[in-house]
Amino acid sequence: MTFGNYIYQDGTAESRKAAIDQLISTSDKLEAGHLKAVEAASQLQTAIGQLDFNEKEDGTKQELLDELQQTIDDSIKYGNMYYALDDIIAKSGKIMSDPRVLGRLRAQQDYKAFKDEILKRTDIPEYMKDMYIDKNPYYYEDKYSQDGSKIIGGSKWEPIDRPVSYIDDTKMFEEVIKFTRPDVTSGETLKFYDINGKEVGANSEDIVSAAIIDKYGNMKEEVTGDKLFKSVIGLYEHNQAYQAHINQKIKYAKWAKEHGDNTDYGLYTASGVERSPLEFIQYTFVNSIEGSKYRKLVTSRDVNLFNPYLFKGGGKNNINETPGYGDLGGESAGTTNRTSDTTESVNGASSDDMAGEDGITF
Question: Is the full-model pTM beyond 0.85?
Answer without folding.
Answer: no
